[in-house]
Amino acid sequence: MLKIRVMRIAACRSPFAVRFRRRLSSVDMLQQVSRLPKEAVMVHGFAKTPRYVLKDGLHPASPIVLLAATDAELTVVFGFSDKPEYDTFLNARSQALTPYPLVRGYLQNQIDLDVDLLRLIVLDASDPEQEVLDAATFENVLAAFQTDSDSVSVTHQLIRDAASQGYRIQEIANATPEKVVS
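Structure (tokenized):
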């Protein structure tokens, strides 16, 4: 179980913030966060649920990922929560890409193909050469779609390797996200 901290701020008339701790499962956290107004949520360990992917022809655009000889195969695609996010990315990239809606069927079909394959969606990258990219598994994004959540749990980070210009994947373990609620 993950431990989270909740602070009530902003719309409060009191100058003092209220803090409390409570243990919740990641599914419980997604449900709690999805009930909050969009403008009131600042969550570490969560990001906006991606609704679009960028395609280069028939294939989704993806970063260059470095694999060690012992690593299993994986799929990584760029995902974006809204038009301003993918427009920012497209302006920083010289290659012409086309946005397409990310749909449940695509995620489910990819998950069903091979359960042992790691599949990640990079969340709202602002630049194709960003130093650190947050990512979520296809399973977490599908769960966010199924619960109609506006946020998804960040499960991995892609860290840019300056020498090779590719990314190394790092799993985020035991993150203790904070959320701010008005």
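The chain has two domains: 2-45+177-181, 46-171. The helical segments are 26-34, 83-92, 104-113, 138-146.
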